[in-house]
Request: fold
Amino acid sequence: MKVFESDVVIVGAGIMGAATARTLSRSGLTVNVVEQFEPGHTNGSSHGTSRIFRLSYPDTLYVSMAQEALSLWRAAGEETGESLVVTTGGFDAGEQIEANADALGQCGASFEMVKGADVGDRWPQIRLAPDETALWQPDAGVTLADRALEVFLRVAMHAGVRLHSNTRVESLELSEDGVEAHAKEKTFHGGVAIVTSGGWSAPLLATAGVTLDVKPTRETVSYFAIQESPPTFVEWSNPSIYALPAPGFGLKAGEHIAGPTTDPDRPGEVNLESVERISAWVADRFPGADPTPASAETCIYTNTPDEHFVLERHGPIVVGSPCSGHGFKFAPLIGKRLAELAIG
Ligand SMILES: Cc1cc2nc3c(=O)[nH]c(=O)nc-3n(C[C@H](O)[C@H](O)[C@H](O)COP(=O)(O)OP(=O)(O)OC[C@H]3O[C@@H](n4cnc5c(N)ncnc54)[C@H](O)[C@@H]3O)c2cc1C
Reply:
């Protein structure tokens, strides 16, 4: 049995593991990252060209976290010479926009309530009913998802972090001086283990007696051709629907927490009924888009009952489960928080 020693072991190289590895790569601690597939794979939650970045939340906690995350994304961009967040501005429509406006106002973030009749001239890519009101927030945009993952891992490895790909951790065992992460014919021993294993986290944590109340669902997203790249758009309804620019594709759109509970190890199927609903919504909201989907794919949400994030420490094990379909935008901040929890 080969044993790999380090101060910290990170299980999972999705965006949260990559962001944490990048932060720890400056700490002077030694770090092993263990990933069951090749980084950038499409079986989990972090693949694809883009994710919505927004400040607009009904909760000041998330507005202020997004503000902090935006400055960290920008700092990462300056550090690497890569722009990882593209600002497009964004719309919120539907149920909770008043609460979002309140929270934005309390956090000093700018916004504008726009009447549907006034949208056409300024934003021809978007259609609202004349009597409808939507919230416009100028700092919204997209994070360049697979690019960010690649850049964070590259920076971490350049600074000495070791990545072990195609290596699945089967169990975690507490030891006298930390944790042992057991894989086939290999053990990773560290003073602390950070579990950023996305939809696979709960059963893995259970091997060390840690309970994580999450439910993985398989979500469907569709891609459409569009004449002019639009701002981001979130329609708060039941389920909520969102759309964003997708570099290389045009427009990406999907329903929020609308997919079936899933086992992340089982291959996924696109939900054709969801694709149909989304095409109809795109036809209604984006006059310049071709509502016939060019392609569709699945992606895993790891949902907590209240959609809040789980960032906590249990002895030598740190749990990082910040998803429920809205975690990506916070990745550099989550990386910082998980590193702080690990360093204690
Ligand atoms: C369709 C969809 C749309 C989304 N839209 C947005 C959005 O617009 N804005 C936003 O902010 N967020 C969005 N999100 C959420 C965001 O993408 C996720 O919160 C984020 O990607 C979660 O990253 P993660 O690193 O926790 O998970 P993952 O990327 O799944 O990473 C976990 C990694 O752990 C590895 N792993 C698991 N178990 C083991 C093991 N036993 N041994 C070794 N490796 C293991 C997996 O292979 C995987 O690579 C969306 C998510 C989806 C699915």
